[in-house]
Amino acid sequence: MLITLLSDLGTKDAAVAAARAALIHTIADAEVVDISHGVSRHNWREAAYLLSTAYNTFPQGTVHLIPVAVFTERQPRMILAKKEGYYFIAPDNGLLPAALGIDTMATVKLCHQYTKPYDFTQWLSDAADLIHTLPPGENMLDSGFALTSQPPLPPPHVTPINVVCRALYADRYNNIVVNITQKEFDNLQHNRQFKIRTFKGQNITSVSRHYNDVAIGEPLCRFNKAGFLEVAVNHGSALELFGLEKGDTTALDYHTVRINFNQ
User: Fold this and answer.
1) What's the topology of domain 2-132?
2) Domain 157-261 carries which CATH code?
3) Which sign does the torsion angle of CA 32, 54, 224, 165 carry?
4) DSSP 40
């Protein structure tokens, strides 16, 4: 059985190893693949972006386990969802509706509800036991369950002269991914020239295909493999370009990138 892990556990200690061990001990044929463990602590939006871009690159039948912000809710719960032949196990904190769209999840089931003292080891054990019982049959829907909802990944704000985008994610190279896709950008641009202003006064006026399309130290924008616009600096930091510090996820959550179009 193919299982993926996406978490905010980090890789400094043994938490990821413990998660893998819980799965392997319970599921003899478990094949565990990491999506990422570098999600910022409790950052459901970052996890939602990564999950939305990665889940359907795996074979149907894959189980996606997402222990992100597990006990941040007042009444922590574990849910199981199914979409397009994929299974998702996550805390009921709004992450799945944001990543997958609540209207597109065919089935959702409440599996566990937790009370203090919270035990992450028990959460992992429960998840492993749940995976061991899959598939659960066609009727997974629990009609008496009110799913915690977060809005889908926020759309860009469009005006006649510009598009205001929000930062979704900063990768390990300090590139900033914003919430506009190539299709949305092309529909809004209408062959107009555009400009992305930066904190350091270095403007971006064209879309690149590769990082080395510009000189070292120069900024650029490009569409990544997931189809979202990415702002980067060739051998540099887009975070610094906008006056942000690496690891400051609070500032990134509230940061905007404006794309101005010439009339």
Assistant:
1) Rossmann fold (3.40.50)
2) 2.40.30.90
3) negative
4) P
Q: Which residue has the tokens 């690891």?
A: 247
How long, in residues, is the chain? Answer: 263
d(CA 176, CA 236): 12
Helices (H), 87-148: 95-100, 120-132
Cα–Cα distance for residue pair 239/257, rounded to 1 Å: 11
| Domain extent listing, the chain | 2-132, 157-261
pLDDT 10s per residue in the chain (263 long)?
Answer: 999 999 999 988 888 998 999 899 899 889 999 999 999 888 888 899 999 999 999 999 999 999 999 998 888 999 999 888 899 999 999 899 888 876 666 678 889 999 989 999 999 999 999 999 887 555 555 556 778 877 667 789 998 889 999 888 888 899 999 999 999 999 998 888 999 988 877 899 999 999 999 999 999 999 998 889 999 999 999 998 888 877 666 667 778 899 999 86
Structure tokens given for 213: 């399309």
Q: Which of 261, 224, 221 minimizes the C-alpha distance to 241?
A: 221
